[in-house]
Amino acid sequence: MTELELRDLRKTYRARGRPPVEAVRGLDVRLRSGELLGLLGPSGCGKSTTLRMIAGLETVTGGDVLVGGVPVTDRPARRRNVGVAFENYALYPPLTVRENLAFGLRARRRADRGDVDRRVALIAERVGLTAVLDDRPATLSSGQKQRVSLARALVREPDVLLLDEPLSHLDAAQRDTTRREVKRIQRDLGHTAILVTHDQEEALSLADRIAVMRDGVIEQLGTAHEIYDHPATRFVADFVGEPAINLLPAVTAPDGRAAVSGAVLLPLPVRLPPGREVVVGVRPEDLALTGEDGVRARVLAHEPLLEYGVATLALDGVEDPVAALTDPGTRLARDDRVRVAADPGLTHVFDAETGVSLR
Ligand SMILES: Nc1ncnc2c1ncn2[C@@H]1O[C@H](COP(=O)(O)OP(=O)(O)OP(=O)(O)O)[C@@H](O)[C@H]1O
C-alpha cells in the first residue's frame, strides 16, 4: 500500500525555433494508499504529460513525485515500481502474449520461472486473455491488445498503477466487464492508481476522486458527486455532464433572480446584489417541463431516447436554445408551446468574467 504525491509538478517543453509549451503548470495532489484518481480534461490539457512524469518517462521541469513519501523524481522509470498501461499498447510484436506479460517480471525480479508462470496465468485469467496466451500481438483484436497492455502493467504488482485510456478500444460490452474487473483488481491488490480517460462515465464509475484539468492545472478536485453537483467553475460545469449544462449569460435583478436577455427571470441559488453580470447554469435534468407555471418556451426539437428524452427549447425572448430532459413516453412536436421551470436549489451561478462559482 503506497501513497502517491505530486508537489508543484511542472513541465515545459522546449524545442528550438518554437515557443515553449507549458504543458503542466504546478500540480499539487496527494493520493491516499489504494485510491483511484480519475484525471479528466480536454485534449492537450496535460494529462499524458503528467502520467509520463510520474512513470519517469519524461523529465520534470520542476516539482516532485513522491511514492510512499519518498521522492522518486530523479529515479529512472525502471526503479520506480510504477506500472503503466497505455492506450497504444506498446507490445513487443515478436513475443507471444505470455512472453509479453512475463518479460518485465523476469528481467526485473529474477523471479523463478514457476512463480512468473503462475502470476501470468492468474492475471491473464482475470482480464480474459487465457485463450490467447500463445498468440502474437499481430493476431489480436485491438480490444485484446489493450487488455494485454493492462495485464502487463498489473502483473508486476506495481506500487502505483497508471492507466492512460485503458479501455478506449474495447466495445461497449467488453468495456463494461473490463471496467468492473479493473476496479476489482485495483481494489483487491490495493493499487494506488491514476486513470486518464475521455470517457466521463468511466471516470465517474471507477474513480474515488476526480481531478478536472485545464491548461496544465487542476481546476477542481473532488468526488464525482462534488464535481457534478457543485462545480467550482463554469469550465468544470460545462466539461462534466452529458447532455451539457445550459449556460446562460444573465444580469442579476432586484428581486434576487437573474434576467436572461432582459426577458426571462431565472432563480438563483444565492442572493446577489442587482446589476451583476453572471452566467446561470441549469443542467438539462434540472429544467422541468411544467404545466401552468414557469417560463414560456417553444419546442425546437425532441429526441426520445430509451430512458429519457432530450428537448431542445427556445425560451421566449432568448436567442440561445436550451436542453431539457423529458420523461420517457413524453411526446413533443416542433413548435409546441411548453413551460419550463428551474429549481433554485439546483441552479448554478458563475461570475461572468472569471467563471468562478458564486454559490
Ligand atoms: N513531446 C512534446 N513536445 C512538445 N510539446 C508537447 C509534447 N508532448 C505534449 N506536448 C504539448 O503539451 C501539451 C499537453 O499535452 P498532453 O499530451 O500532456 O495532453 P493530454 O491532456 O494528454 O491530451 P490528449 O487528451 O489529447 O492526449 C499540449 O499542448 C501538447 O501539444
UniProtKB/TrEMBL annotation:
The organism's taxonomic lineage, starting at the top = Bacteria, Bacillati, Actinomycetota, Actinomycetes, Kitasatosporales
Keyword field contains ATP-binding: yes
Against Gene3D superfamilies, the record matches this protein to: 2.40.50.100, Nucleic acid-binding proteins, P-loop containing nucleotide triphosphate hydrolases
An example Gene Ontology molecular-function term = ABC-type transporter activity
* Residue ranges of every copy of the ABC transporter domain listed in the record: 4-240
Going by the UniProt record, its keywords in alphabetical order are:
ATP-binding, Nucleotide-binding, Transport
Q: Which InterPro entries match?
A: AAA+_ATPase (IPR003593), ABC_transporter-like_ATP-bd (IPR003439), ABC_transporter-like_CS (IPR017871), ABC_transpr_MalK/UgpC-like (IPR047641), Mo/tungstate-bd_C_term_dom (IPR008995), NA-bd_OB-fold (IPR012340), OB_MalK-like (IPR040582), P-loop_NTPase (IPR027417)
The reply on keyword Glycosyltransferase is: no
Recorded protein name is ABC transporter ATP-binding protein
One Pfam family it belongs to: OB_MalK
Q: Which organism is it from?
A: Streptomyces doudnae
GO CC terms of this entry: ATP-binding cassette (ABC) transporter complex
